[in-house]
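--- STAGE predict ---
source: upstream dedup step, 1 unique chain passed
mode: sequence only
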Amino acid sequence: MTDSIKTQALHSLGLQDTPLITGLWQVADLERAGQDLDREAAAADLTDYVKAGFGHFDMADHYGSAELIAGTARRQLIDAGHGGESPVQLFTKWCPQPHQCTREAVRAGIEERCERLGMETIDLLQLHWWSFDHPGYIDVMDHLMELRQEGMIRHLGLTNFDTDHLSVLLSCGHEIVSNQVCLSVLDPRALGDMSQLCMDSGVRLLAYGTLAGGFLGDRWLGADEPTVVPDWSKMKYQRFIHAVGGWQAYQQMLQVLAGIAAEHEVSISNVATRWVMQQAAVTGVIVGARLTDSQHREDNRKLLELRLTDDNLAQIRDAGKQLTPIAGDCGTEYRRPPFLTASGDLSDHLDSLPPVFTRQAVAGRSDRWRISSGSEYEPICGYSRAIRDGNRVLVSGTTATHQSDRVIGADDLRAQTTYIMDKISASLSSLGASLDDVIRTRIYLTDASDWETVSRVHGRYLGNCMPANTLIEVSRLIGDYRVEIEAEALIPAAAETIP
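--- STAGE serialize ---
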């Protein structure tokens, strides 16, 4: 990745001079009693941020009235004499349900964002997707690209996409400028494969959770762990603290940050945020504000002059080695137990996730069920995408075919394998099984030298249950594919009943 490309990425988001973004997640927390914030007063707080030099704001469709507040602040600033030009950059997210993947649903979702923000063109629209078992995120990105071409969206980004699925979208040619992920001294997951892919592709990271909901701050140094936390943000990040080894392990990291802060005469929060800023793939950090309650503009300004030394970075790196790594990749906390969310599950966001495929009873067999992917070849050839007989589930050889004939990852084997594993997972769950129930897989490759890329993806999906596996090189596969995978699962006896 050349410096010129990185500079271009910085300029595309307007973060090259001030890479600090004010996050508005806590609007939802402040409004959880059912009473919206005073919109004019909250907007006035945002205008104060702009006057202090911080003109970037991040929000989402489900952050209470955050979009309406930001839109009001934008209008106030324009009316105050900015010549019709907006002095702010508004980044928002759309977090649709799996069924909201049609062209009409996507347009409606983005039109609502534009209306709430009072903008014809959204500066950065970021997509979150709840379950990669459902491949609709590819269709959503297709439609978002169309809206970008129409001028409704200036830049497209993602939020909480893991590395494998970022590679899927990049392989589809989607023009993605950013991925917003959790990143802090307690949670460095994004600094591995994710950062490498970003550096290779030109995508940049927007980092949230940099202060662990405020726990990476002076007031918590040497403090006892609270038995009752006051807000959703701390509820969430207390779970992260437990995941990395508990309160004592967290306090040891806090002590290291405090020593560095004293050296530079800044706050612990400054050190924690600056550490994230200095990571190569990061183009912006998101620091939350509790509008009409508490902001930290003066403290944040010190970040622009602070620079951690190589020795400082080494101290933090050594302290991090004492923590238990958080399992999974970026965004795993939203898709797999244990959910590291404020509520400890997804109940605040979703009622349920419907199965991707509809199961059908096999005529004359009370204990046999099947699913179809809708492929025209299934009735012609007389086979099912997957079949369940009693507590045994068999998934047919699976390729990376999206819709009827679109090959995903034709030039990216990692993306192709990822799509296949998602399709297998969706097939299993539609019949009451899961990846943890898999007891055998077979992998067919057209080139045996591809084994490692495919096997590493296979391992990320099935590393917990470690099924029996056979990997075979074949002369060719039917269609433009490099890999095909089949699977067999055995559902525990206690869960034999079809749900």
